[in-house]
Amino acid sequence: GPPRPSSLRPRSPSLRLKALSPSLAQVARLLEVPAVLTEQYPEGLGPTVPELGAEGLQPLAKTCFSMVPAVQRELDTRPQLRSVLLCGIETQACILNTTLDLLDRGLQVHVVVDACSSRSQVDRLVALARMRQSGAFLSTSEGLILQLVGDAAHPQFKEIQKVIKEPAPDSGLLGLFQGQNPLFR
Length: 185
What we know:
Layout: H1 5-8, H2 12-31, E1 38-40, H3 42-45, E2 60-62, H4 72-76, E3 83-89, H5 91-104, E4 108-117, H6 121-134, E5 137-139, H7 141-149, H8 157-164
Parallel strand pairs: 1-2, 3-4, 4-5
Helix pairs in contact: 2-7, 2-8, 5-6
Subunit structure: Interacts with CDKN2A.
Pfam families: Isochorismatase
Family: Belongs to the isochorismatase family.
């Protein structure tokens, strides 16, 4: 029969992903940043895990690796939209294809590297390099959260500080930025 959904989830990277994504969902709610949730073939791969903190978001099912066709209506209702933050799995499939489609539309794309994962770290790292080469910005959850807040005087800063207070778990990306990685030279 078809593989069970749990067999298709990344192993340890998914644990790191689960630990980081709820903070992004919480901050989006606190700052009233619009958020969209898509699910790749949920009938076969299963639904979004509750640990991601996406309650309140109505998932849009899709089979296309890019989420752009599934969110076309949302994009069309926001002509003022200039940038998008992306996180999820799999980096080399849905995140990469969505990034390339959004860049083609003229949008800035910020890929939340510590909240994107893959079953294969090679696929993940090569996809991140490709997105960077294509013009996407690679950022961390905390870096993007602080960029969204902008100022410690922000009325929601104390709440957001509670969300980012715990140090992020190791995302497995440190070697990527230590100079020895030929993908990022």
